[in-house]
Specification:
582 residues; alpha/beta; Rossmann fold; 4 domains; 7-stranded mixed sheet; 6-stranded parallel sheet; 25 helices; 41% helix; 16% strand
Length: 582
């Protein structure tokens, strides 16, 4: 394999990369580069998507852009919303923005944007369907189908003479007021086709009906037709209320969604031509005794917000500018919801890496999300091609996997090498795996830059049950000090996204890769969390997508990865398990 030489950074950047990092990640803030700065100072009215691989500085661009927008008085800080994937990122935002001179920016974790407690988890197919933009069409039809013109015949009085038609009748004093069936249905159709949410149009229909009754009354008694008291009486008339409720029932968002999931017939009526039979079946869920008993999921909460908009016209707080980090994992319905939070003349900075997408919708291009976030208007995508955080040896080692998960994306070029031991692959036996994991951690802990202990992350397959066991082994190792243990994080692969550490130990990568469609992408993320060294410990052969040609090294000997021998050495910075740019 022909390796690329690391890009040549300037002396200032190298000095910054060599410095110890605090929790505020000062170097990320201070090393904004020329290519990044062009994005920071771009048009304040744009929907800008910033695509960049691991360590390319996407978060730095987003936060510097926030400060630039505020300092140049395009927006006030309180009119900006920053949306992040987890609390660690929000802590990072809270630490970094004040160092840039910006305070009072709103910041929220993505899954906390939507009201209500998350009480359940959807299966993969249910989540894929609920989060698809087609779900908005299903919900719209659910609301519109609640109107029932066919119920009108049970509310009419028979015609009193030949040639007449059945009518809706109301008594006002001693006067019987009539609205013929065809006129009543025309009023209903006009109100349904009008602008506004379900409840607003329902109120308009009631008002139009009362207006029609008052015109009938005014034709006989002109003065009484203009009497406000009579109008109020008609609005409260039981027959009027009954007719409105039968033709245009009151509806709540939760009941609309509960009944949709619970009734296959209702779901079929609302989803016909939009979802296929299997997709409809994935949505079926019997309702609980009460709405509070239903296992509401994150995607249900997004759907409920859509329904509140359709039913009540309820709109969440709006912002002049929205920054979204890790946007590659946005679902279409989440993107739709974020668009609703952006003011009509507002803008967005959308940060992400399609190669790291692990959500229910794996986007291979930004077109779909860009169209939704811009409300099918103008948007643009910019590419960051230089990795400042991940050493060249690691980027080269992971390159075949990057090509496998995202063949159409440019692969970032690193600016520095870390040395000949930057990447190690270690084959072992299943019965020795956890002991060898602890031994590798013991090898990695304790180093520092002279001031700060280097951080170590152990990334294991999700649901492996190894996290507690590895922790116990470290507790029992008398050669590892308490301070060194505090520098070690053991986490499942699914939680590695957005984090960085000095040393990363990835355990059993083949198992990570085999975890469903997102497995290879999760492995790609895990392997690119390091700023200093990467160790891969495995009992099964390395995934072919990682080696680029088949199985990984055989035998139990520890060795530097052959394809990642360093061509130059540079001192590495110290990480602290903090959010990183990709």
């Amino acid at each position: 394999m022909q390796r690329r030489k690391p890009a040549q950074p300037d002396d200032f950047l190298l000095r910054e990369l060599r410095r110890s990092r605090s929790g505020r990640m000062r170097d990320i803030v201070e090393t904004i580069r020329r290519d990044q700065m062009a994005l920071v100072t771009g048009s304040p009215s744009d929907i800008l998507v910033v695509q960049g691989g691991p360590g390319t500085g996407k978060s730095a661009v987003g936060l510097h852009r926030v400060t630039w927008l505020v300092n140049n008085e395009h927006f006030k800080a309180r009119d900006i919303l920053v949306v992040g994937p987890h609390q660690r990122f929000l802590d990072y935002v809270g630490q970094v923005l004040p160092t840039l001179g910006t305070r009072d920016v709103n910041a929220v974790q993505l899954d906390r944007l939507w009201e209500g407690e998350i009480r359940g988890t959807d299966g993969p197919e249910a989540r894929r369907v609920k989060s698809d933009e087609r779900m908005a069409a299903v919900l719209h039809r659910r609301v519109e189908n609640e109107c029932r013109p066919e119920a009108v015949d049970g509310l009419l009085t028979e015609a009193s003479y030949e040639g007449d038609e059945p009518s809706f009748t109301v008594t006002a004093g001693r006067t019987t007021l009539r609205v013929p069936r065809t006129e009543l249905l025309a009023l209903l159709d006009e109100a349904r086709r009008g602008d506004g949410a379900y409840r607003e149009r329902r109120t308009r229909f009631r008002s139009m009906l009362v207006d029609r009754l008052l015109r009938e009354l005014a034709a006989v008694f002109p003065r009484r037709g203009a009497d406000g008291t009579i109008r109020r009486d008609l609005e409260r008339n039981r027959r009027v209320e009954r007719l409105v409720e039968r033709l245009w029932p009151s509806l709540g968002a939760r009941e609309a969604l509960r009944s949709l999931y619970d009734s296959p017939d209702l779901l079929r009526a609302c989803a016909d031509g939009i979802l296929d039979e299997d997709e409809q079946a994935a949505l079926h869920r019997p309702r609980g005794a009460t709405a509070a008993d239903d296992p509401w999921t994150l995607d249900d909460r997004v759907c409920l917000e859509e329904l509140r908009y359709l039913v009540d016209g309820e709109v969440p707080p709006r912002y002049g500018h929205i920054v979204v980090d890790e946007a590659q994992d946005l679902t279409p319905m989440q993107a739709r919801s974020l668009r609703r939070r952006c003011a009509a003349s507002g803008s967005m900075t959308v940060l992400g890496d399609l190669a790291q997408a692990t959500g229910p919708h794996t986007h291979t291009a930004w077109d779909r999300l860009g169209a939704i976030l811009s409300d099918h208007g103008d948007w643009s995508v910019a590419q960051l091609n230089t990795s400042y955080r991940v050493p060249a040896e690691i980027m080269d080692f992971v390159a075949p996997l990057a090509r496998a998960v995202a063949p159409s994306l440019p692969y970032p070029q690193a600016v520095r090498a870390a040395g000949p031991d930057a990447v190690r692959t270690v084959a072992t036996e299943p019965w020795k795996l956890l002991d060898d994991t602890a031994a590798q951690v013991a090898r990695l802990v304790g180093s520092s830059d002279g001031n700060t202990l280097r951080s170590v992350a152990v990334v294991v397959p999700d649901d492996s049950g190894w996290i507690d066991e590895i922790g116990r082994r470290l507790e029992q190792d008398a050669d590892v000090t308490d301070q060194e243990r505090e520098a070690v994080s053991v986490l499942p692969a699914a939680e590695a996204k957005g984090m960085e550490f000095d040393h990363v130990l990835v355990v059993e990568p083949a198992t990570v890769a085999d975890r469903g469609p997102a497995g290879l992408r999760q492995l790609y993320i895990a392997l690119t969390r390091s700023t200093q060294s990467l160790t891969v410990l495995h009992t099964s052969p390395l995934p072919a997508a990682l080696t680029g040609h088949g199985d990984g090294p055989d035998g139990g000997a520890e060795q530097p990865a052959a394809e990642s021998a360093a061509e130059s050495a540079a001192e590495s910075a110290v990480g602290s398990g903090q959010p990183q740019d990709g």
